[in-house]
Structure formats: C-alpha cells, structure tokens
Amino acid sequence: MIVGRTAELARLRSALGAEPPRASHRLVFLEGAIGIGKSALVNEFLAAWRGARILFARADELDSRIPFDGIRGILESLLDTELGPLLQAHRSPRALLRSVRTGLVASPALLVIDDAHWLDAASITLIEQLLLEPASPGLRLLISHRTGRAPGALAAAARRSGSSMHRIVLAPLAPEDASALLSTQGVDDARLVALGGGNPLFLRLLAEGHHRSGAMQIDPIEAVGASLDDALRGELLALDEEARALLGAMSLRQTVPPGALHLVAGLSEEAGARAADRLAARGLIDVERMRVAHPLVQAAAYRGMSSSSRHRAHRRAAQHASDAIERASQLQHLGAMLDNAELAVIVEAAAIVLATSPQSCIGLLERTRRVPSRERDLLLARALLLDGRPAEAEGLIRAAYRAEEPSGAALALLIQCLRIQGRPDEALELALDASPAASSPEVAVELATLEVMHDGSPSIRSNDRLEALDPASNPPLAAAMSALRALAGLRDGELELARREYASAKHGFARLSGNEVLSVIDAATALGWCAHFLGDFEAGAELLERALGLAERHGRFHALPHLYVVLAFICIPLDRCTEAEEFVELAIDAGRRYNWPDAIPLAATAALVAAPGRVSPADFHTRYRRLQDAGLPQIAWWRRIVELFSVRAAIRLGLEVDRAPLAVGPHDLFGGQKHLGLGELALASGDPATALEHAEAAIAVGLRARHASQTGHGLLFRSQLFHALGRNADAREDANRAADCFRRGTAPLYAGFAERWVQQLSAPGPSTPGTLTEQGGRAAALEGAALTPRERTVAELVAEGRSNRDIAATLHLSPRTVETHVSRILRKTGLRSRAGLARRLDAAG
C-alpha cells in the first residue's frame, strides 16, 4: 500500500473510469520528479483495475535505436508477436498503425506508458496518429513522465482530437506522510524526514542507510550523503561483486530473458539466485519479475559498470537475444570494439528498421562509424536520403564509390541522390561516363529513367550501354525497360510503339516476384504513368497498389512520393476521389520528408483535377492557390503537366492566363487536354465558334489515340457548347456518346458526369453541366457584354446571391474593388440590378 497518495489515486480512477470511452479519447498525464512515486502510484492503480485489459509499456533510458521500443510491451501484447518479427512483418508504419487500430477495436484496452519521457520518436508518432485518426476507437491512456518532460506531441494531438485530458502532478510527501513511510521501513528519525524532502525513493534509501550505519556505528546522514546520487552510489558500492554483476546485467535492457540474466552476469544459476535475493532484500529489484525496482537505480547500475564489464555483458546479452534486431540493440554499444560478424548483425537489423524509421537506422549505424565498412556506409547513405539529408548521403556515397572498385549498387544510389537533389544533368553524365564494371540492372533503370523523364536526352531504344546488359536474360530488367520504352514512345508521340511496349511491360510486371519488383521499383511508376495516359485505369491501379505495398514494407521510400502521385491521378477517373485525396496528402508529406520537392506541385495538381463536381468554388480557388505556392517541378515531364492544369484552372477562375502551356505541338501527348483548355479560354472570351473548333480537335486527338476517356472529354465539352448555342438535339447525342466512351474507358467518375448531363438535357427547364466547363452556358449568355475574365467570375458569384464582402473574401479582393466590378458588369450588360443579372444567367443555365 502506498502512503500519502489517496487524492491522486482517486483522481486517476475518476479520469479513466472502468467503462470504455464511446467516442473521444481519455488521457491522463501523471507528472513528478525522479523518485517521487509515479511508478508506485501506477502500480497501485492497476492492481485494483477492473475494466478492460491492460497493455503496459515502460520506455528505457538506455536508448536502443529500435523504432517502437518505447511501446514494445503494448505492441507485443496486442499483436502477440515479438518486436523484431513485428517490424519485419510491418515494414510500413501505416501497416503497423492499421494492425494496432484493428487490435484495439477488437479488444479495447487501457494503455499505460511509464517513463514516457524516454519514448522514441516512432512510438510517439504511432500514438499521435492513433489519437488523430478518425477511425480509431476511443482510447484510454495513462502516461507517466518526469516533471517538465511530457511528450508534447501527444498532448497537442490530444487537444486537436478533442480528447478529455487530465494532468496529475505528484508533489513531495507531506512531513507526516514521509514519517509514516519511514515507519514502514522500521525507522523513526526526524532528521531523515527533513533530509528526504518528501521523495519516497530517497526516503527508502535513507532508511536502508540508517540500518547499515546503525550496525557500523556511523552517522546515517554521513553514510548516505546529502543527495540522491550519493545515496545510490553508496547503496551500489555496498553490494558484493556477484550482486553488482547481476544488477549490471539487469540494467542493460528490459528485454534480456530473466532465465538468462545469470549467464549475462557471468554467474552460475545458483550464484545468480543468491545474488537476486540479496538485491531484493535491499529493495533494488523486484525479484518476482526480475526487474530493477526503479529506473534511477537501473541508470546508476549501468553507469557504475566498468567499460570492459559493460562490453562483456552486452556481448553475452546479444547471444541470448531472440532476433537480429534485439542482438543489434545490444551490440551497438560496443563502438570500436565491434568485430566484423557483430557489425554485420547491426547492418542487418538497420536494414530491417530502415523501412519503419530511417532515423532509427541512422542511429544504429552512426554508432559503428569507427569500424570501416562499405556496406554500412551505403546503407547509412540510403537512410540519410530517406531522412531528407541528400547532401550528407552524397558525401558518403562518393567516398564509398572512390574507395573500392565501383559497384552498380553504389552508382545507382549516387545517381538517385543527384536526381533527388534536382541535378538530373549531372546524374545523366555520371551514368553515361561510368566504367563498364559499374553496369548493373539498377544503373540501367536509373539511366533509362533519366533519359525518359528529361527532355533532350538520347532515346533509350538506341543506347548500346543498356542493350549490353541483355534484358532478355533478366526478367525484372526486361519488364522495366519495356515500361520505360513505352513512356518514351508516349513522349515522342509514337503511340503504337507505346502500346506494344506497355502491353509487354504489364505482362512482365505481373509475372515478377515481390523482390524482383523492388529491384526495378522506379520503373513501376513509369508503368503507372503509361496506364494513365493510355486509359488503362483499373489495371494501372492494381499494378501500382502492389508496387506501393512493396515499397512501404521494404523501405523503398525514395519511390513513395512518385507512387503516391501516380496513384492519386489514376484513382480520379475510377471515382476513387477520396483515396486520391489521401494519396495527394501522402505524396506531399513524403515529398517533404524525403526531400522530393518535385512531387509536391504534382500532387497539388492531382488535388485540383479531383475537385470539379466535388468542391465549392472557394475550395477550388484554395486548391489553385496551393498549387501556385508549390512552384514548378524541375523534371520537364512533370512541369508540363503542372503548367497545363494550372492554366486550365485559372481559366475557370476567370484569371488572366499565359497561353504558352496550351500550345499544341506535333504528336503532343497532351494535345487533347490542351485543345480543351484552348476551347475553355475561347468560351470565356465570348468566342463559342473557336471553342467548338477546339472541342472537335480534342475529339479527333482522342480518336487517333484510341483513348476512350479522352474522346469522352472532347464530346462532353462539345455537348455543352451545342447546348449553349441552342442545338439541344446535337448536345444530347454528344452527351450520350461521351457517357458511352467513359464507360468503355472504365472512367466511372466521368461517366457519372456525362450521365447526369444527359438527364439535365432531357429534363424540362434550365440545365447546367458539371465539369470544368460548367460555366459555358452562362458565359455564352454574356458573350455580347465584352466582360473581362475577372468580371465574368464576379458575375457568376453575384448570380449565386453572394454579397460583395463574401465575393471579396473568396477572390482575395477588397470590397471596394468588387463593388467597382459589379458596377461595370451592370453597365456593360445593360442591366439595372444584381437580381436582373442573376435572372439572365439562370435563364442561360
């Protein structure tokens, strides 16, 4: 029974309760100084708990550099698997989060994290995501930490999620409670009450010192010193050699199996048992659980070991570890004393945790830098790349590349590093100038990717260096090269070649094993783009989802921003816009995290493409501004996509635009989209005849490319133009043809747009289309008024009944400027009121 904590115990029980929370989370932050009794209070509370099961974890001061080590106890109990195999099975943090959430839904629990001030970053992130995930069940968390060292991210996440939060601060014991605690230890001495300062741990150590000093006729205060550290040093110095050795073994890591502790200490089983009894008698360990009684004692015991004793203990502990990750967590403390076999264990473990936490991988490997190893340096460079530190990675890779005979793996990593930093020309030159010894499938894929994605590069079809690798004898390389040749064919306007190579690549990728796909993961993104541009949406999504799962599980983080972006684009026509929005945010986050800035504007473009028919005009404008703020990608291919859709969005918003991105070149892959943009621009300028010419050109591009969805977009735009011109029979015919094209092209989102437009055309009364050109009919109604694009936008908002102040906020103008626009609109249209303008536009649909 603890002393003097009745009020705090009652608050704990009231805050967490026995009934599970129905919606919001409940959190209690239990705060106090070292030795103040936080763990004792938690244990007392849990002993009387009668609610859901308890999942307990205690973070460790001895940094293991293993992700999720701080909540190891919770994860292993919840998922019934040790942490090492758990990380191997859940290489992606998202996958682990899903498993944890599923486990908590199936079996609600009280989560208890003791010593949370030692939590690792991965553990904090996972708990934070659980708190913020809308799909997460109502959680109950008890988080114990030292004063002033609360995990701030968890408190912030709790506030953002609307959780119920309580903060309980453990103050020093009152003098009467301190005296009562000493009495339970058989001591009655007012001097010790004053010296203990109300700290329960200090009081117990003082009581122990009192007993020893009494036997030795020494003043108890002199015996234990004037501080807690002095007391601990005195306590540990008083131990015999066997007890010190066992306590040292127990201080290493909580994961050393209890049955192996005597072996780690270098003792016989009998000697270990006797030493444990002596430690328990002094209150230093919990003999039932074979665990050090307090983290402060654990830290003092570890610091008190000599370096040679510590190294021996870590090596022995590694021999009894259950997996490579746990072995590495012991061996990493050897530093320069590592041998080659031990270093190989750490590199193996670091490769496993790389996928889950690049920072943990870096932490593991940095401790081994005094031991030369090319394999370690390349893995560390990969982790630095994934952690958004490409300049540091480049230095390591170049050193490894120069130190020994160049290898394909090192060259591929260096090319990738330069590509990520926006230095494609330098990367291409390096790849072409490298010695034949550095040729490998990885280098071939990197080189081909550079040549395809950057304008002005030689064609991969005539590159002798790539052909010399004989892709026919290497299925992954053959599939990758087909995908890249297909993308090159699309770039050069050779559609038949692109279709043949795409079919070959799709067949090849479907036959590859997971490891084979990983070896050419960048080419999988090229295959995804081909599927998108050729209108093979369903097959493309299936291929990309497989590649994404492999990349997440196996740490190919450099490919994640690109994979997320392509999936976002390909999910849109499949009417999976909610998923597309999720992939957009993942791409932006991954682009920032892994230093791929080009992915950010491309992802923002996908958010804009997914917007029509789903968001308000104000939200559409916000997405447009987000894209402008993101800038333009360095990669020419991506830059053209961003510029094209940025211009089309600006046309819809009534902004002044630069026509250059809409210039249609010969064999232009984006010709259909550009003609639609030119048609929209002509319509916004009051020139429906020119708009009709561009609609027919867009249809022709789609038909030549045998791209059903692209043809459908041209037909739908022409249908809207026909309706605005009063040719309703032609409008209905084109709308039906567009819906049929979208259905054949497996683009259900756009098929839905077309079908709703058909219904509107067939119904009596005004009709309004629901695509990027939904303002077409209204624009035609104003074609004689010579309004500027900005005035047309203002007119639309006036017709919706919006006030000048509301319009000003939407368009980021002053109310006075909006008032001036409205006056000009009324004068140009010959109308007398805002209501008259609304009636004219409504009549035009």
TrEMBL record:
Keyword ATP-binding attributed: yes
Keywords annotated in UniProt: ATP-binding, Nucleotide-binding
Keyword Nucleotide-binding: yes
PROSITE patterns attached to this UniProt entry: HTH_LUXR_1, HTH_LUXR_2
GO molecular function terms attached to this record: adenylate cyclase activity; ATP binding; DNA binding
Ranges in a coiled coil: none
GO biological process: regulation of DNA-templated transcription
Pfam families: AAA_16, GerE
GO cellular component, one term: cytoplasm
Residue stretches making up the HTH luxR-type domain: 780-845
InterPro entries registered for this protein in UniProt: AAA_16, P-loop_NTPase, Sig_transdc_resp-reg_C-effctor, TPR-like_helical_dom_sf, Tscrpt_reg_LuxR_C, WH-like_DNA-bd_sf
UniProt name for this protein: HTH luxR-type domain-containing protein
Species: Agromyces mediolanus (Corynebacterium mediolanum)
